[in-house]
Amino acid sequence: MKNTINFQALTEYAKSFSGLTDGHEEVLASVKDEIFQRIPNITDAFYAKLITIEKTKPFLEGRIEQLKKTHSKWLESLFSSAFDSHYTEAMYKVGDVHVKINLPVEFMAGSMTLLSNLIISEIETLTLDSTKKAELTNAVISAIGFCLLIMQQSYQTSFLQRELEPFLKMTGISETLFSNLSSAYTPSN
């Protein structure tokens, strides 16, 4: 059953939880040149840590160099993109890909925490006043929270879809019928 996602509504929803604002986007963009220079170090440190976690190894081995390229591009997007419905759709697809490779959801959430810590450590080395560093730290936390929420939403939808497809095939129920039955169902109190 294919869900139609309202990416504008999802963007607003994610921003409401993450606290991401236009002001945060401006702060992120204002340091992109300095941060872009540090992305290779952040990415190297990130994957050096991930490979030490035993359960992540099967997802990383033989792929780290390609993953680093993709990861670096995404990091650049944190500091150079508008967090709009197009960005939301792209992040949603990232979550969907993670489901397709059976990446446990806690890996994604844990990775975002590791990444936040690495970026914040880099922020501390920038030649900015303490107020600007605090604003930038808040912006990074909000941007990463935004991305995490979008990917978790994608995980939930994609996982349910993956579980539903065999059920529909086994029972012979069409997606339309299932959708209509689901819409009509009201749980009893």
From TrEMBL:
Classification via Pfam families: Protoglobin
Domain of life of the source: Bacteria
GO molecular function, one term: heme binding
Domain Globin-sensor: 11-156
UniProt xrefs under InterPro entries: Globin-like_sf (IPR009050), Globin-sensor_dom (IPR044398), Globin/Proto (IPR012292), Protoglobin_sensor_dom (IPR039379)
Protein name: Globin-sensor domain-containing protein
Lineage of origin: Bacteria, Pseudomonadati, Pseudomonadota, Gammaproteobacteria, Methylococcales
